[in-house]
Amino acid sequence: MAMGSLSDSDDDFNPEINTTPLVDVMLVLLIIFIMTIPVMNHAIKIDLPRASDQPDVVKPQNIDLSIDAQGKIYWNKEVIDMNQLDLHIAAEAKKQPQPELHLRAERTTQYEKVAQVMAAAQTGGLSKIGFVTEPTK
Description:
- This protein is an alpha/beta fold.
- It contains 3 helices and 5 strands.
């Protein structure tokens, strides 16, 4: 009886695992890892810029301009007329950075009144106009 075989015949299937290819693969992987580890730990000295402690520029407050159904104009919830609107817009247009004009109009407001306010803002020098709407329920 031969050692290492289960039967007397030499043509039978050999159930032992051949580990030679696995050892070869492991040695190749070991060599690859040994070569790449120094590259990963390599550091380059860079002179990075320093951060300043200055505060960020403060954004200006937005202007809430509302127009009700009767055509009354509200500047930050204060009733004004068209002449006062021109003065307020001129004063706000001189600020740097310019504030944004948030225009809110009721659904039944005449478009003519909204167009007049937009034209006053444009001629007064305000370039940022946003329209505020109410979501539908």
